[in-house]
Design goal:
It comes from Thalassobellus suaedae. There is one protein chain. With 216 residues, this protein is an alpha/beta fold. The protein folds into 2 domains: 2-118, HUPs (Rossmann fold, 3-Layer(aba) Sandwich); 126-214, putative n-type atp pyrophosphatase, domain 2 (Alpha-Beta Complex), CATH 3.90.1490. 33% of the residues lie in helices and 26% in strands. It has a 5-stranded parallel sheet with strand order 3-2-1-4-5. The longest helix has 15 residues, at 72-86. The chain is globular and about 45 Å long.
Length: 216
């Protein structure tokens, strides 16, 4: 029942990790894909040392590889195959909820490495999943967002009040359509809180990013 978790550092992968444990699976290793420069995660723009701090708080190893979007699938499969040799894993856990093309891709790359994909959040109600995450004690900070939300939302913690704001703006409560991404800074299963500062806010391709600095 050992699993690798596809770890973005955000709320969905973290909550999937937690739900998988509740279902009897055992966490073994985390996997994160970095940008081609190897300094930030490709999906969420989170610095490598912040992701390492999360792994330390979970007391688990985390593996990184760098990739462009063009090479993403090939490198992902290569990495999964290598990790299967290094760790006694038979399952891969992902945090997707209801986008069928994402699930198909995750099953494809997992099967290529003789792993079985597990999606603990699959077909959950998006809003209810966020409420459940909050009630479970996950503290998730918005670290990137689109222009509908704007830079003022960067650094804010996901709570029930902010869900109401999202809905008023026509933004999905879970951000499943890419409206925003988060960093989990604390959870009941972390041994310590992840302390970060926002050094500055930046914009790229009409998307806002918080440049995070790990406080030590």
């Amino acid at each position: 029942m050992n699993f690798l978790c596809s770890w973005s550092g955000g709320k969905d992968s973290c909550y999937a990790f937690y739900k998988a444990i509740q279902q009897g699976y055992k966490p073994t290793v985390l996997l994160n894909v970095m940008n081609e420069f190897g300094d930030r995660s490709r999906s969420h723009g989170i610095p490598k040392n912040v992701l390492e701090a999360q792994a330390a708080a979970l007391e688990l190893p985390i593996h990184f590889f760098s990739s462009t979007w063009a090479d993403y699938e090939v490198k992902y499969i290569e990495t999964l195959k290598a990790l299967v040799k290094d760790y006694p894993i038979t399952y891969s856990v992902f945090g997707d909820i209801d986008i069928e093309s994402h699930r198909s891709w995750e099953e494809k790359v997992s099967t290529a490495a003789n792993l079985e994909a597990v999606l603990p959040l699959w077909q959950g109600d998006r809003k209810q999943l966020v409420i459940d995450m909050i009630e479970a004690g996950l503290e998730a900070m918005i670290v990137s967002c689109n222009e509908v939300l704007g830079p003022g939302f960067l650094g804010r913690i996901i709570d029930e009040a902010i869900i109401t704001e999202f809905e008023a703006l026509g933004v999905d409560a879970c951000g499943e359509n890419g409206e925003f991404h988060t960093l989990v800074v604390n959870a009941p299963f972390f041994k310590n809180r992840i302390e970060v500062d926002i050094e500055e806010k930046a914009k790229s391709s009409n998307y806002n990013f918080a440049n995070l600095v790990l406080k030590v």
